[in-house]
Design a protein that fits this description.
11 helices; 7-stranded mixed barrel; 5-stranded mixed β-sheet; alpha/beta; globular; single chain; disordered N terminus; 503 residues
Length: 503
């Protein structure tokens, strides 16, 4: 039996891109329910200038409409539902008061976004008061709790689909940070308890709840009044939660775009700080090239996908080999066989994924050392308690001393040296701009760096230069290529899966 000896050290799990390892674990679909507060307070003007003022309700509608336009192009398989609470009219499967689920014909309450849905939803503000109406759903002397009912309706809409394959989210738009402020006594305590418990029940089902607050001018949204308990903020998280100051429509749209595109963990790796000190960190892919998907072969008659099978035939007897193939390497006219465990041990370079080697000044790290997109790392305490504290201590010291960490990263597939550069967090009125953490920059090998070749000219001929007319035309061309308000989310991923017909 003749097997390929060159495949001795090949491993099907080896990949040049370490991010392929966790690709199948990411949910391939997302379901989002937009919960929009329709109380009279949402129809107040944001600014004092009547020419440029808009209502909070208009800001929420406009930002969601823009998000749906982006979603129908880039993520058309996702499903959305639009739900208003604190309304006079009711429309929901549970027949609860104060909750109105907006929809169009030929579409379920939770379904893929359509052009008709976006068109009618964008124009809903003009007919909202006459067709749906606005009212306070939580008032003294009444047992109606529109926020509780809205969470119940949203949870019921997101009941389908397994959390393993579907990401489920509820986004709440409101400018009322204390919805139970007008109620006192035992009635208030009971309403808060039941509403928070409803949110906990949804989170146990794999549904995440996020708040997009609309701040009142000169009166910031105080999340600690109620919504900190609803979304599970504790300790320093309450102080770090920054509301969105919707004085401009762009602020709300940008923040909603950040919330829609969920930050997904690529993988969790171990970080060895010193001997006996290991922590766990999550890695995030900030930017990656759009690569074509895998080819799917289809039968030309039945249009069904084809399954490729491989069989080994013995070169001596011509019989099918049913036993799993064994790997070997010829040595002195003998075939030395290796087991899977032995090969794994031979290929093992390091016991950990990321191992700290030392520190160097930041000025020694050059721009041309970054040959491929970097990876962002952030600590997690899920596996090892205390990882965040150790990471913060290391992070602060690197920022203070202006040092970057030199570390070994990888295993048998793609081992290399990396530079860990600490980044301090940056926040603005619209939320977090840059998170605190570290960028893992993949350092090049010596032969990866190529020096610029100077133009070789003769002694008689001079170095060519562009004429003034050429420079002017090139400047005009560059100005015409400038894209205003450009976002990568405006265009679909060109690396969609392709299909090949087998004839």
């Amino acid at each position: 039996m003749n097997l390929d000896p060159q495949g001795l050290f090949r491993d099907h799990s080896d990949s040049d891109d370490e991010f392929e390892l966790e690709k199948e674990k990411d949910p391939s679909k997302e379901m989002v329910v937009y919960l929009i507060d329709a109380s009279p307070k949402m129809f107040d003007l944001v600014g004092n200038d009547e020419d440029k003022s808009q209502t909070y309700f208009h800001a929420a509608i406009s930002s969601i409409s823009q998000s749906l336009k982006t979603q129908i192009i880039g993520k058309s398989s996702d499903e959305v539902a639009i739900c208003f609470f604190n309304t006079k009219e009711k429309k929901n499967l549970q027949d609860l008061n104060g909750v109105f689920v907006f929809n169009v014909n030929d579409r379920e309450f939770l379904d893929q976004p359509t052009a008709k849905l976006i068109k009618e939803f964008s124009c809903i503000e003009g007919t909202f008061m006459s067709n749906i109406g606005s009212q306070y759903g939580i008032i003294p002397g009444s047992r109606e709790n529109s926020l509780y009912s809205a969470l119940w309706v949203a949870q019921a809409l997101l009941r389908k689909g397994s959390p393993k394959y579907v990401s489920k989210r509820i986004l709440v738009f409101t400018n009322e940070d204390n919805p139970f402020g007008n109620i006192t006594g035992a009635a208030k305590t009971d309403m808060i308890r039941t509403t928070v418990q409803r949110a906990y029940d949804a989170q146990e089902m794999g549904i995440s709840i996020e708040i997009l607050p609309l701040s009142i001018p000169n009166e910031p949204f105080n999340v600690s009044h109620f919504y900190a308990d609803l979304i599970g903020l504790e300790g320093d998280e309450v102080a770090q939660f920054l509301p969105s100051a919707v004085e401009r429509l762009e602020d709300m749209t940008d923040q909603l775009t950040k919330r829609i595109f969920k930050k997904r963990i690529v993988r969790t790796i171990s970080f060895s700080i010193a001997e006996g000190i290991n922590i766990e960190v999550n890695t995030y892919a900030l930017i990656r090239p759009a690569l074509p998907g895998s080819v799917t072969w289809l039968d030309s008659v039945t249009n069904l996908s084809l399954k490729a099978e491989r069989s080994f035939i013995c070169a001596d007897t011509g019989a099918l080999v049913h036993e799993p193939p064994k790997r070997f390497h010829p040595y002195k006219n003998e075939n030395v066989k290796f087991s899977v465990d032995e090969l794994s041990e031979i290929k093992r370079i390091s016991n950990g994924h990321l191992c700290l080697l030392g520190f160097k000044p930041l000025d020694l790290l050059k721009d041309y050392h970054n040959l491929k997109p970097s990876t962002f790392i952030f600590p997690t305490d899920e596996a090892i308690i205390g990882s965040t504290k150790i990471f913060i201590a290391l992070h602060r010291s690197m920022l203070q001393l202006k040092r970057f960490a030199l570390a070994f990263y990888g295993g048998s597939a793609n081992p290399r040296l990396v530079a860990l550069v600490a980044q301090d967090g940056v926040t603005s009125s619209s939320g977090q701009v840059e998170p605190p953490g570290m960028h893992m920059i993949y350092l090049p090998f010596s032969d990866d760096i190529r020096h610029v070749e100077e133009l070789q000219t003769t002694a008689d001929a001079g170095v060519p230069h562009a004429t003034d007319d050429q420079i002017k035309k090139a400047s005009v061309l560059m100005k015409r290529m400038e894209l205003k308000d450009f976002s990568v989310c405006q265009f679909a991923n060109p690396g969609d899966s392709s299909v090949v017909i087998n004839k």
